[in-house]
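S1.2 Input.
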Amino acid sequence: MTRTQPTARSSAASTRSSATTARSSAASARSSALDATAAPLEIDPLLDDPDTRIIVCCGSGGVGKTTTAAALGVRAAERGRKVVVLTIDPARRLAQSMGIDSLDNTPRQVKGVEGPGELHAMMLDMKRTFDEIVEAHADGDRARAILDNPFYQSLSAGFAGTQEYMAMEKLGQLRARDSWDLIIVDTPPSRSALDFLDAPKRLGSFLDGKFIRLLMAPAKVGGRAGMKFLNVGMSMMTGTIGKVLGGQFLGDVQMFVTAMDSMFGGLRTRAEATYRLLQAPGTAFLVVAAPERDALREAAYFVRRLAAEEMPLAGLVLNRVHGSGAARLSAERALAAAENLEEGGIVDQEPGNAPVESPDTPGTQPDLEPPASGSSPTAPAPQADSVTPSVTSVTSVEQLTAGLLRLHAERMQVLARERRTRDRFTALHPEVAVAEVAALPGDVHDLAGLRAIGDHLAAGRSTT
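S1.3 Output.
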């Protein structure tokens, strides 16, 4: 009875080990199958295709959309395209990386581009774009009345949704000028990066709202009838809303709406035309994400939203992917080796095993007798001094090696986590082509760095 228990436990352990191995093999097979479904995103054919006129980079904040847009612009220009990059990121990283002091609402040419094409860059100035719309579509007196209106000044400086609409407006302006054969758009850095798709709908809802129709009614009726409506209807509204907003503010709103009345139709028409332009075959959306769970969850949201809006998705740019030049050494083996070194299991560091000189070595004298009484024991001292630095040196090397092995194990764990996260995304969206960009040791701050990013994008896979 005593002998059969260990045998049973051994059999059970063997069974569990086999099951664990089988699960590990199955997981590895699933990972390989998932990885195989991720088709590579071919960037160069996309940039070289003359039918590609607009590329929109979208994604959550902090994943490298601005850098990706700039790198695409540099690569396209050096391959012969005439490119303009429109950024909505106020951090001004695009200007710094392209060697420009500052960007504004006017496209500026980037110097240092190597190739037959041209590269221009600009940063959306929301208020200036709104002012240009007013100046282009209203006569002098009406334009001045709108620009000086306090409500308009607040609206154009930061009203909710204005930035997204102005991005649509500026994109439409650039496309209408036909001065560039490729426009690359860097969208706002937030979860609302696709809100510019809703700009025409939100604008229409705003213009068709009861509040706006009530404010516009006196201008539409005109004459004494309008004044009568104003005295009756507006006095009732002023009495209620004016207590909350203030009579002066309400008057500013009414004056703004009255002055903008003739422009509202044009605003809606242009926004809807730009929306249709984004659905056209010449447009390509690139979703940019980091290999992290939250970022890829946002990427999945963008993919679904673009499909619902019938927007052409080119693929996913997976940015800042980590790699290793020693990927064959697993995290488990690296940790085991580090523990062995730290516990002395590989190299015996006992002082008694340190090498000593042979008595037969020429120039040495074996210490056969103890030193005479009163004499100074000088012979052993040099031996002790010669052994101690050797032991200390070996110990330091082993500690350093163990530390490096632990760092490698952490890197391999990061790689495994990123791979699992990527594979979950590709399993849910196997139709989305993927390009990986390796994590760089530092920030990109010049054209050479942007070229390196472009090379990674064209390669499609980060080096591991």
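S1.4 Remarks. Residues 380-428 form the longest helix (49 residues).
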